[in-house]
Design brief:
Layout lengths: L3 H9 L3 E2 L4 E2 H4 L2 E7 L2 E6 L8 H16 L6 E6 L5 H9 L4 H4 L11 H25 L4 H6 L2 H6 L4 H16 L21 H30 L13
Parallel strand pairs: 4-5
Antiparallel strand pairs: 1-2, 3-4
Organism: Jeotgalibacillus soli
Protein name: MIP18 family-like domain-containing protein
Length: about 240
Amino acid sequence: MINKEKQVYEMLDKVYDPELDQPLTELGFIDHINIQNNEVEVIFRLPTYWCSPNFAYIMAEDIQKYVSELPWVNQVKVNLVDHCASDEINQGASEGKRFSESFSGLSDQDRDLDELRRTFQIKAYYARQEKLIKHLIKTGISKSEIISMPVQGLLALPLSAEGQSLKERYLEKKESLNHSSAYAITTPEEEVISIEGFDDYLLGARRTRLSMEFNGHYCRGLLEARYDLPSTNETVALKR
């Protein structure tokens, strides 16, 4: 007998806060789920009443998308609570509408969320890439080897469990950007990184990663304060 609740949460593990590049399940944004026969309701919440409707809509769309992939699910109802645009987001995401259809009064509605999604994908790419590069350097791989390494070479590297996880997460984001370059480590635009510009490039990627980690810690704190949740006592390691 299948465990429907477990399967739903496994799909929700794939839904990330676009700004923080962390799963909603880890952030505490998923409140609970209800399953009636083959219909699923996902109740989620955000750190503040005024969290950006754009960000919230991306999360709601992804909840709808991933949970709907389960073969036994006939209907998914997304239920964002305690938010200034709950009604528009819940109705739009549950009915499969685009952001522009639900928020037609916004000046940039014609762009929908595609441009915003790509912006956050690039930030996540930098953050994941920086972590992987640091790990590769620790294992003794030189900067020149890193920037000239082919994708197949990266795939074949015998890394530790931590390194393997960092590699998989980075390649996942690289695939989402539709990269086709033979080089494993490039800019988000698939440009080769020069050895002269390597340190500056890595510094920029590190700053992006630190900003995202700080924001994640801050959002957890806001959520815990808003809903009187026990503190995770998590300290974000801002490693330089």
